[in-house]
Write a structure and sequence with these properties.
Phosphorylase Kinase, domain 1; single chain; about 525 residues; four-stranded mixed beta sheet
Length: about 525
């Protein structure tokens, strides 16, 4: 195992170095002279195999980890892998269920429908004549991914490299990636995700989830009913079957609104391959990635969408400060101005002209520029909305998701306000308000007397005053030091001119000593200024 680890370590180091990322391994290598283009990083990941392809795909969803220029390129990574030997497929099936494929299936297609980095999918017909698809995990893929991630962790521990635009440490990012891949490698988790999604959408007539075949599903194998549907972007075929593309686009958007704002549990990868149309329903496939929102986060999201709808700058700022993690000093005035500019830029026009992807990306970028790291569930949500908008735009260009979300949130907010009204609380609140209102005239009179009699006090708080004082002290000290040096030079000149004190060959030793001391102090002052980086 140790030999295998060393060999893989050498391979990773060699490939990263070959594509211009040697500075990751050796911090002494100059970054400026390296070809570090996003395209090279994608090619390096492709060459390093399935684990790195999966890591790259995860990174492409995290604008808080990698810069924007890398995200676009990493999103091009194709999850295509060579098909697994069918003997391995049969062995895994037998290990999981102690039954041969031939004992369970009337027909099993040895050629996979799809072959990805983690698993491949086959179709088959069970003995009871049910049409099914079987998702089978690749042999030893978990161990391989764990090895690669542990090697990367070791590399990042050895060096201090990080992306210059990122708000998160690479080691923290690797921990998140490890947790994400562990979830995706556990097909029982995916099965549970399908059940939760099905339960949440039981009353939604236009949404369908394939039924899981429980008896043949495990950690490494997931079996479900086969869906004979049309890919959602196959517009010609959809129209042939008499479907309305605008209706599909609107129902898909509303479905996602419900998943996010009502359920707090949404499909994490809504690309066209995971959305089929059949029997008058939108069928969701592949629940390896899902997004989950806490009750508090759902409430915050409803509030921020309402704030965007009403162009409430303070509401958006409060949202960012409440849910975000501060990674440095946050200038609230600058944050307010950035949000105000965003609202004026994107929301001062008709909703039909607004792209939700642009608004969300702008929120992520202004958060980063103001040292605020958004939680992972929100960055996942941003990616999903961008994918969803792409699908909706392709099938129904007349529909804008923002035009669907805003009315949905407004109606939800109205119903929530009415639902939260309590007669007793309303009565108590009215009484308290009336009581406080009666105190207003006397308080105003009291304030007036205080001002007239000169008893008013004004408290002013200046942020970062200690830092400013330190800088001021340094500046004053340097000025005083400079004046002292200048005085020593002038004094020494006078001593030399007059010839006071002991002399050597007619030159005052006291004057020369004064010059030397002034030169040493002056040099010391100059070095301290240069080292501080304040010499402009």
């Amino acid at each position: 195992m140790r030999i295998k680890t060393i060999e893989r370590f050498k391979e990773i180091v060699g490939v990263l170095g070959a594509y211009g990322f040697g500075y990751i391994i050796d911090s002494k290598i100059n970054k400026q002279n390296q070809s570090r283009s996003p395209r090279n990083l994608r090619k390096a990941f492709e060459e390093l195999g399935p684990t790195f392809i999966k890591i790259g795909q995860i990174l492409s969803t995290r604008p808080d980890i990698v810069p924007k220029r890398y995200i676009k390129e990493l999103s091009k990574l194709q999850d295509n892998a060579p098909k697994e030997d069918f003997t391995d497929v049969k062995n895994i099936f037998y290990e999981e269920f102690k039954q041969k494929i031939s004992e369970v299936f009337d027909y099993f297609n040895e050629k996979p429908l799809a072959s990805a980095s983690i698993a491949q999918v086959h179709e088959g017909i069970l003995k009871d004549k049910r049409d099914v698809v079987v998702k089978i995990q690749r042999p030893n893929i978990k161990e391989k991914m764990e090895l690669d991630i542990s090697i990367l962790t070791r590399i990042f521990k050895m060096t201090k490299v990080r992306f210059e635009d990122a708000l998160i440490n690479p080691l923290d990012a690797l921990i998140e990636i490890k947790l994400s891949t562990e979830k995706e490698l556990d097909f029982k988790q995916e099965k549970n995700n399908m059940k939760i999604f099905e339960k949440n959408n039981k009353k939604v007539a236009c949404v369908y989830v394939p039924k899981v075949i429980e008896e043949f599903s495990s950690t490494k194998i997931l079996m479900m009913e086969k869906i004979n549907g049309i890919k959602i972007t196959n517009k010609n075929k959809i129209l042939e079957y008499g479907y309305n593309l605008d209706e599909i686009g609107k129902k898909l958007s509303l479905s996602y609104c419900k998943q996010i704002f009502d359920d707090g549990f949404f499909h994490g990868d809504p690309h066209p391959g995971n959305l089929l149309i059949g029997q008058g329903k939108i069928c969701y496939l592949d629940f390896g990635l899902v997004g989950e929102l806490t009750e508090a986060m759902k409430e915050y999201l409803n509030k921020v969408m309402f704030a965007l709808a009403t162009k409430d700058v303070d509401g958006v700022v409060d949202f960012l400060l409440s849910v975000g993690i501060k990674k440095g000093r946050v200038n609230k005035n600058m944050l307010y101005e950035d949000v105000q500019y965003m609202i004026q830029m994107y929301l001062s026009t008709s909703l039909k002209n607004i792209k939700i992807s642009q608004v969300l990306q702008e929120i992520v970028e202004l958060s980063q520029s103001n040292n605020i790291q958004l939680p992972r569930e929100l960055t996942n949500l941003v990616r999903c909305m961008i994918l969803l908008e792409g699908v909706v735009t392709e099938i129904s260009p007349n529909i804008e998701i923002m035009d669907v979300i805003i009315p949905f949130v407004k109606n939800k907010t109205k119903s929530s306000l009415l639902k939260d009204v309590d007669k007793d609380n309303l009565l108590i609140g009215s009484y308290k308000f009336s009581k406080d209102t009666l105190k207003v005239p006397s308080k105003i009179a009291e304030l007036s007397d205080t001002i007239i009699n000169g008893r008013t006090k004004l408290n002013i708080q200046i942020q970062d005053i200690s830092s400013s004082m330190k800088q001021l002290n340094k500046m004053v000290n340097r000025i005083v030091f400079g004046v002292m040096v200048a005085s020593m030079i002038v004094g020494s000149s006078l001593v030399l001119n007059v010839g006071i004190g002991p002399q050597y060959r007619g030159i005052s030793i006291l004057g020369i000593t004064g010059y030397l001391v002034a030169a040493i102090f002056g040099l010391w002052l100059m070095i301290s200024i240069i080292r501080s980086g304040s010499l402009k």
